[in-house]
């Protein structure tokens, strides 16, 4: 059996049922942290070299051994197994087996508490960048779709009833703007994760002259998370805020899913999707189900549940490390997986959905022009409330307006006739540049450590 980092003697063994309960499932999620544990360990070793704990030769041995683990992991040949306890134990034992003397020094001035925090921050930064770029791609698709069908008229709804004239462009760009807001929240979560916890130890620091700023710089963190006790207590808090940022994205996708599910029913029949994106029924030959969007809608609720669960796990636990926080890891990792796959599905849907413009036009009734007709009297000097009553008492008298002309006449900023798509294009370009730079910077940091 693998020796645990906390074992003092070979006689100090755990009951198998205890080991399975405390570490069994956790190893599945630790597998995703192998690369980050290696990268964090290289930076830590380099800092130990700087302060004189390691010799040049010892550092080279550790660096080579850690790089070898990274290569094995990348090729699928480094899998955690029952008995390893966690990723940190397996990595350190692997290094120590190869270089016993140098390996015995690797954990100097480090606890598994700040080690897993570092792993999770690096993991989160990487996943946030992936999520942001997928969000950008979806936003770009919505904007492109809106440009193509900017003045295609469709009914607008309030209270689930027809309300006023809308357009496909207005409907599509609302999701683009919502996603840009979601990206702003995601950027805040990135900033919170961009703090180095390495060196906080078990929450109370260490009595060695470590250089936390140097470690942070090597790992590409923008700053050190200063207070060692708060650094530990922030585990769960920052993951909770990150999960809440992901919730915002899924709220946008959930609404899009619901709209599209309604608008593809036979009763609406406003949009169509190719057969390659729909499923059928085992009993009803005619069925063409848009069930991928039903799953997006369902998973938008699951993401909310995960975010609440993370918050609940840290509610009222005392200061310092508590193993409750281990349960946060799968919740956050599953959240990233769900959000990223949902973004990819939504992008595929937007690329392939087609508006049935004739059906939308047929669904437009005179009542949709009631407010517009009222404003025609306002333009002639009538008070709005009087115009409102005049039109409301004679709805059959509303003339046959041409919907495209009404849309173009509704041309204040943000209305169907003035969506300011050029501004959205500028925001998209700026957003893309921000996240591509973060991606490139992060990849450069990792590459440098692995040289």
Automatic annotation (TrEMBL):
Entry-linked SUPFAM superfamilies: L-aspartase-like
Cellular component annotations (GO), alphabetically ordered: cytosol
Key words of the record: Amino-acid biosynthesis, Arginine biosynthesis, Lyase
Pathway connected to this protein: Amino-acid biosynthesis; L-arginine biosynthesis; L-arginine from L-ornithine and carbamoyl phosphate: step 3/3
GO molecular function: argininosuccinate lyase activity
Pfam families associated with the record: Lyase_1 (PF00206)
Domain Fumarate lyase N-terminal: 26-299
GO biological process: L-arginine biosynthetic process via ornithine
Listed EC numbers: 4.3.2.1
Matching NCBIfam families: argH (TIGR00838)
Protein name as catalogued: Argininosuccinate lyase
Organism encoding this protein: Candidatus Woesebacteria bacterium GW2011_GWB1_38_5b
């Amino acid at each position: 059996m693998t020796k645990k980092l906390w074992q003092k003697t070979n006689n100090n063994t755990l009951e198998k049922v205890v080991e399975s309960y405390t570490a069994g499932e956790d190893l599945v999620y630790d597998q995703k942290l192998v690369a980050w544990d290696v990268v964090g360990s290289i930076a830590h070793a380099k800092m130990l070299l700087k302060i004189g704990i390691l010799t040049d030769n010892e550092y080279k041995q550790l660096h080579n051994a850690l790089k070898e683990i990274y290569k094995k992991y990348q090729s699928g040949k480094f899998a955690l197994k029952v008995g390893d306890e966690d990723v940190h134990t397996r990595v350190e034992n692997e290094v120590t087996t190869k270089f016993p003397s140098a390996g015995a020094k690797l954990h100097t001035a480090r606890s598994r508490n700040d080690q897993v925090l570092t792993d999770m921050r690096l993991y989160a930064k990487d996943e946030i960048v992936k999520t942001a770029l997928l969000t950008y791609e979806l936003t770009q698709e919505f904007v492109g779709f809106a440009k193509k069908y900017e003045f295609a008229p469709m009914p607008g709804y309030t209270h689930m009833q027809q309300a006023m004239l809308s357009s496909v462009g207005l409907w599509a760009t609302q999701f683009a703007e919502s996603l840009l807001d979601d990206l702003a929240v995601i950027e805040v979560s990135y900033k919170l994760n961009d703090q180095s916890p390495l060196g906080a130890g078990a929450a109370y620091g260490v009595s060695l002259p470590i250089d936390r700023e140097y470690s942070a710089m090597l790992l590409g963190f923008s700053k050190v998370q200063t207070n060692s006790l708060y650094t530990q207590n922030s585990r769960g808090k920052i993951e909770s805020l990150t999960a809440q940022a992901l919730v915002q994205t899924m709220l946008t996708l959930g609404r899009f899913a619901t709209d599209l599910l309604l608008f593809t029913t036979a009763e609406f029949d406003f949009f169509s999707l190719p057969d390659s994106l729909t499923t059928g029924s085992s009993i009803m030959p005619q069925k063409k189900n848009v069930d991928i969007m039903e799953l997006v809608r369902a998973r938008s609720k699951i993401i909310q549940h995960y975010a609440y669960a993370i918050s609940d796990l840290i509610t009222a636990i005392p200061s310092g490390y508590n193993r409750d926080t281990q349960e946060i890891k799968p919740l956050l990792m599953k959240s990233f997986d769900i959000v990223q796959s949902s973004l990819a599905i939504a992008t595929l849907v937007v690329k392939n959905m087609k508006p049935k413009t004739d059906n939308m036009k047929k669904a437009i009734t005179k009542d949709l022009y009631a407010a517009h007709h009222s404003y025609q009297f306002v333009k002639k000097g009538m008070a709005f409330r009087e115009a409102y009553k005049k039109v409301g008492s004679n709805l059959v008298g509303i003339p046959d307006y041409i919907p495209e002309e009404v849309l173009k006449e509704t041309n204040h900023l943000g209305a169907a006739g003035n969506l300011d798509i050029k501004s959205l294009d500028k925001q998209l370009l700026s957003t893309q540049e921000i996240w591509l730079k973060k991606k490139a910077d992060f990849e450069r940091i990792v590459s440098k450590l692995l040289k």
